[in-house]
Design goal:
189 residues, mainly alpha, two-stranded antiparallel sheet, 6 helices, 2 strands, 2% strand
Length: 189
């Protein structure tokens, strides 16, 4: 802060020095090109995926015409390509449009009760899947999620959750060959 000599009005007061032009210009440029942050994120994720795919230990004898590196190489390359194309678009003046289709009132506070209930349900399912098996833990997950999201059909929801859980267990365990823990129901199902 500096003080200037008294002017015609006779009042001397402190005034702020204007910010250096380069600092203001840099901030303005970064604000106008904030989408470049997404480009950097996509570039980092694409590089990570490609690095992981290229350093993957693959036995040639176990590999068919399309090996385990194929999908990560395609995805990583696509991420890098999208990052470059988005950066070019942003630098040419392209801007993302504001979301207009959302029916969300941004002035309302977050519903932390629902978030905490869902987090607790997911955590409980992760802890219980080992000792109780997927059919029981999955049923608790489905029923708990429905309850946390507002469903209050106490007679119908547990039945639907049990059917969904058993169907998911059957699909993964028997049809897809992905073993899920059965828990105490292992001999029954």
């Amino acid at each position: 802060m500096t003080t200037e000599p008294a002017g015609p009005a006779g009042s001397a007061g402190p005034t702020r020095e204007p910010a250096p032009k380069s600092d203001t210009t840099t901030r303005s440029w970064l604000r106008d090109h904030s989408e470049l942050g997404v480009c950097v994120l996509l570039l980092a994720i694409g590089t990570l995926v490609l690095t992981d795919a290229l350093t993957m230990d693959v036995d040639i004898a176990q590999r068919g015409p399309i090996g385990p590196r194929t999908v990560p190489l395609v995805v990583g390359s696509a991420l890098l390509l999208v990052a470059v194309l988005l950066a070019v678009d942003v630098l040419r003046g392209g801007r993302g449009e504001a979301e207009s289709g959302e029916d969300v009132d941004l002035d309302e506070p977050a519903d932390w009760r629902t978030v905490l209930l869902l987090s607790g349900v997911f955590l409980a399912a992760a802890v219980l899947i080992g000792p109780l098996g997927f059919p029981i833990a999955g049923a608790l997950l489905f029923w708990g999620s429905a309850y946390a999201l507002g469903s209050r059909h106490h007679d119908r929801d547990p039945l639907i959750a049990a059917v969904l859980s058993l169907a998911t267990h059957f699909l993964f365990d028997n049809l897809l060959g992905v073993p899920l823990p059965g828990g105490p129901l292992m001999g029954v199902i």
